Amino acid sequence: MTTPQHDSHSLGNVHNTVTTEGKTGWRKILSFLGPAYLVSVGYMDPGNWATDLAAGSQFGYKLIWVLLLSNLIALLLQNLAVRLGIVRGLDLAQASKHTYPPFVNFCLFILAQIAIIACDLAEIIGMAIGLNLLFGLPLIWGVSITLLDTLLLLFLLNKGMRKLEGFIISLIFIVGLAFLAQMFIVQPNVIDIAKGFIPTKLNSTSLYLAIGIIGATVMPHNLYLHSSLVQTRKIDRSEQGIKSAIRYNFWDTTIALNLAFFVNAAILILAASAFFGRGFHEVAEIQDAHKLLTNIFGKLAPALFAIALIAAGQSSTVTGTLAGQIIMEGHLNLRIAPWLRRLLTRLLAIIPAFFTILHFGEEGLGKLLILSQVILSLQLGFAIVPLIHFTSDKKRMGKFATSVPLQVLAWVFATLIVGLNVRLVIQEIQTWAAASPGSSNLVHYIISPIAVGIGLLLVYVFLRPILYKHVNQPIHVPHGIATALDNLEAISYKQIGITIDFSKNDQDTIRHALMQGGKTAHYNLIHVVETAGARYYGKQVMDSETQSDVDNLDIYVDTLVKLGYKAEAKIGYGSPATAIAQIVKDTHIDFVVMGSHGHKVLKDLIFGTTVDSVRHKVNVPVLVVKPQQKRKDI
User: What biological process terms from GO does the record include (predicted)?
Assistant: First the structure.
């Protein structure tokens, strides 16, 4: 199979990898279950814990209605994201790229990236606190250890989408069980809980917390993530098949998000019952909550609390990386290795966590957690507004465009979120300006203009699809529009490059190359010497390893020549990908055949993926030959 130069699929390595066709009954339902559970972990991450604990300890059960409202908003918006992904085969970032100019897309990418860093910050702090509570590990070490989950993500992605989903669901199960057990220990008042579902007026403190709860629940990166994850299912593209996929994913989303609501409500109820009811009204810190649980209920409840916190943080960190990959590829058409993407995001989030611990002490982490959730809420409008526009567009969505009542409800929710955020921003700017006379210049000349600029960007994002609705733009479909197949003659390659690494895969690689060119093509057997000497001295080096490689390559060439093929040896030095690309260019090779090592996770990380690097460096077709697995007789 020839490797494409640009893969337009969202999360291309797992796109359409889970088949749903040809299945019936419960097997059909199970084949669709999964994407929403990956999304739902964002609804029960450590950021939610901080806002829910603060809300429960300060206001008792009074803000449960905000949680319920957030869950209803999330249900609607996640289902719109599902619809976009299934019908148009585009994730939210890709759809934005097709609609808005490059500069606006870059701004949307920056804002979405800030949201993902804010989310990742919550996971870092949650994991560090969880390790501290369970094992007594200092927070600064806990924050450092969170760098290692890059390796966990690589391992899970390498195992495939279903294994990743299974891992996440098992962590959610741990979190759910831990809180179910804690509810039996705490024994909350059911009547008071029921009263909490009645909406009440919000003052300035409860407004800040309410917006934090909405930001922690309806996460912008989850909309990008869900619109992409549903595309991992291979579905029947007929009208009935799309309808069926939307229906199954609706149930997947409803079940997963209601489970997340149960966890969030459990945290708030735990805080209200254990702390507010006993006069502890300022428990915003997760550490304080753990300490008080120890004093009130003994050792079991706090241990369950810490285990659930670690599970929630670890599961959320995996999905945050996937979302980061989606927004970078979608908005900027820029693709980098998942481990590098993960490392960049994590480092950008670790810096403020380190700074907070060093300068404000461990007590500052709780405030940083809640601030991260408010930042998420402020970014919501930039994900929600385009999403509603895209799913309401009858020209591109056809029969699957959202109905008018749903559109109205979605716009009401969007207006509510944006309105609350505008009120909060104005309130915070006024507070900063009044805090000290010296800070007023900073507010008036830097913070206020930035806030106004971001507000104008949101207005543009809202107006652009309306003003340019009838402009004759090409309709972007998942794989482009089919063109006439008027030339299907076999391509004749004249110069074929074969990469050689003196492994057992060489024979298969050479066989596949000979199948492409027969005895008319010229074969260039390429081997790269990677010794330290070769990297520094290049062609001047002639150590024993280099001489051995040259001799071995000549044996291959002589064998091919005796069989009647035209072949010659090409030796490169230093970095394999760069050397191969240079030989391809200098020799005018028009087709490359490469053997894949079949490395797993750590080996790919250590040795690098030469195949991946080469295909991005050359402008000719690349055939990747994977080693054949021996079939086991059953």
Answer: iron ion transmembrane transport
20: CB partners within 8 A, 6+ apart: 28, 31, 32, 233, 234, 235, 245, 248
SS3 (DSSP) at 527: strand
CA distances from 578 to 168, 584, 609, 612, 617 (A): 38, 10, 12, 12, 8
When pLDDT is averaged across residues 475-480 and rounded to a whole number, the result is 44
Q: What is the CATH number of domain 25-401?
A: 1.20.1740.10
> What is the end-to-end Cα distance of the chain in Å, rounded?
29
pLDDT score, position 135: 82
For residue 26, the cross-strand partners are: none
Decide: 163 and 156 in contact? Cβ < 8 Å.
yes
Q: What's the pLDDT at 569?
A: 92
Closest CA to 307 of 127, 156, 483: 127
More confident residue, 27 or 379: 379
Domain boundaries, the chain: 25-401, 495-625
CA dist 456 → 317, 451, 460 (Å): 32, 9, 6
CATH class, domain 495-625, is alpha beta
Tokens of 591: 């087709």
Which residues neighbour 127 within 8 Å (Cβ) at sequence distance 6 or greater?
46, 142, 145, 146, 149, 309, 310, 313, 314, 317
